[in-house]
Amino acid sequence: MLVSWDVLAMAIVILAIACVTALAAVVVVKGARHRRERRRAAYDAAVRKQVVKLAIAEDEELDALIGSLVAASGPVGAHVEETLLRMIPEVRGEVREAMVQVLAGRGLLEKSREQITSSSAVKRSKAAELLGILGGADVVDPLTAALKDKSLEVRLVAARALGVAARPEAGGHLVDALALGSGIPHSVAATALLNLPEQDPAVFIEGLRDPDPGIRYGSAAVVGLLLMSEAADALFECLMAEPDREDASDVVIAACARSLGRLGYKPATHVLADLSRSPVVSPSVRQAAGQALKVMPGAEAREVRKRVAQSADADVRRILVDW
């Protein structure tokens, strides 16, 4: 079937119009994007200039500066919050305190305290993260409550946030979060515990005696990492009592052994020697005891290592080879 020249010409015209329209749309979109980027750059320059001043302002000037950042409204106000939240993890000391004061003054603390009980898990997670950044005594209760949230993601964020907030009174709650049933990985809760500026040995001593093996394991590991000598006796007691428990755990025994080695707890030397060459314990326990024995200080420990190396299995001997 032949197509008339008129129809062909009309098709070409329509195609040309479509191309021109599409090109115009691209130009308009790019132009709008460029304008947004320029506005954002302008806001960023203005806000950054004020934020930088937080680091150098004198007391009277600082109060005025904080007040102006708190009072910022509209797109500039939103950009203040965005900029501070982006920068605050990288700063410490008085500058961080000033940034937190601005964010709290803009209502983020109250808003986060409200949203941490939202029906949305996404909002609860975001609120927990913000509460950790804002810190202070007021964030401990909502964050410790969030450690038992029905959403695992919220529980994880809350544990990390307590580490960021670094409030000593959160220690006991984070030890409880080491429980096997919490769903929170030990690495997350333990890292948060290690971030706390002050540690109460009583919290970890209680953890070493807890019925939950997850809490015993986490407490034993953290005590060693903190070199908490005040808990050394309880750590040794945990090592000795663990095999007789109904829920005895090799990972608890191994963690106790390694931490006793880190602490250089000499009364454990012969017990570690027996474990390191015992045929009835698991290889992981023997190796952990060997590692602890290897770093145990003193002449007595040195002689014990020599005897163990003569009768231990190949893996333990390799651990002790450079004593």
Automatic annotation (TrEMBL):
<keyword id="KW-0812">Transmembrane</keyword>
<keyword id="KW-1133">Transmembrane helix</keyword>
<dbReference type="Pfam" id="PF13646">
    <property type="entry name" value="HEAT_2"/>
</dbReference>
<protein>
    <submittedName>
        <fullName>HEAT repeat protein</fullName>
    </submittedName>
</protein>
<dbReference type="InterPro" id="IPR011989">
    <property type="entry name" value="ARM-like"/>
</dbReference>
<keyword id="KW-0472">Membrane</keyword>
<dbReference type="InterPro" id="IPR016024">
    <property type="entry name" value="ARM-type_fold"/>
</dbReference>
<dbReference type="InterPro" id="IPR004155">
    <property type="entry name" value="PBS_lyase_HEAT"/>
</dbReference>
<feature type="transmembrane region" description="Helical">
    <location>
        <begin position="6"/>
        <end position="29"/>
    </location>
</feature>
